[in-house]
Design goal:
Length: 237
């Protein structure tokens, strides 16, 4: 029995070491969710250093998307649309949390849809550079114009991210770790000087599925088969 435990420990160490040493392919998506507007989402694939669970790094500029969304709620006037260009900074995650800047900016389109807006308010997602903002935390970012907009970011988590809404309610998004699938979320609080839209909830959602290398899987299978063989040998003896 002691030999079995010893072999199991060796196999586990080899697999863990392989995961630390070798980059691991992944496929995933980055989603930006702003209040009740349609979601911004882009899916890509890549390779990152992955140590299991929610411990990994992510290269910058793997995700990129641009979108324009109309805002038709009369209570949001003079906001008539939102346009955003979004990418990601380098990410570092360990133990279920970490930082990864959401870079780029958003345009709040005023008085008419974005294609013909009378005025825009440009809202950067990060400042510093990269020391505060969405996906990082730090102090709020303020953009002023016909409408004042303040953006407050936070780090990423595999837990529950919550944002209080203007009516005293709570919006939330949930992260998780399930095998090689990881979802991290980051809350974003958007404040304006428009009564009905004084506080808007927003979230960044990062979902990645890591794909272990075949050699790692073969190593693990070999170790399990050896343990099974040893068990049968001991039973027959």
């Amino acid at each position: 029995m002691r030999k079995c435990f010893g072999l199991l420990a060796v196999v586990a160490m080899l697999v863990a070491g392989r995961a630390d040493a070798a980059p691991t392919p992944w496929a995933g998506s980055l989603t930006i969710r702003i209040s009740s507007l349609p979601w911004f989402r882009v899916g890509v694939s890549g390779t990152s250093n992955y140590s299991g669970g929610a411990t990994f790094t992510l290269p910058a500029r793997k995700f990129w998307m641009g979108a324009t969304l109309p805002v038709t709620d009369p209570a949001a006037f003079p906001i008539a649309g939102v346009r955003a260009l979004v990418s990601n900074g380098a990410g570092s995650f360990a133990g279920g949390s970490g930082v990864m800047a959401i870079t780029g900016s958003g345009n709040v389109c005023l008085f008419s849809p974005c294609a013909s807006a009378v005025a825009n308010v440009d809202v950067p997602f990060t400042m510093g550079p990269g020391t505060r903002g969405v996906g990082i935390g730090g102090g709020p970012i303020l953009a002023s114009g016909y409408v004042d907009v303040t953006v407050q970011g936070a780090p990423w988590t595999v837990g529950i991210a919550t944002v209080m809404t203007v009516m005293g309610g709570t919006a939330m998004a949930t992260g998780y770790v399930a095998g090689n699938n990881v979802q991290l979320v980051t809350p974003v609080v958007i404040n304006t000087n428009i009564g009905a839209s004084a506080t808007l909830s927003a979230f960044g959602i990062l979902n990645l599925t890591f794909v272990p290398e075949p050699s790692t899987l073969l190593l693990l299978a070999s170790g399990v088969a050896t343990l099974a063989l040893l068990g049968r040998t001991r039973a027959s003896g």
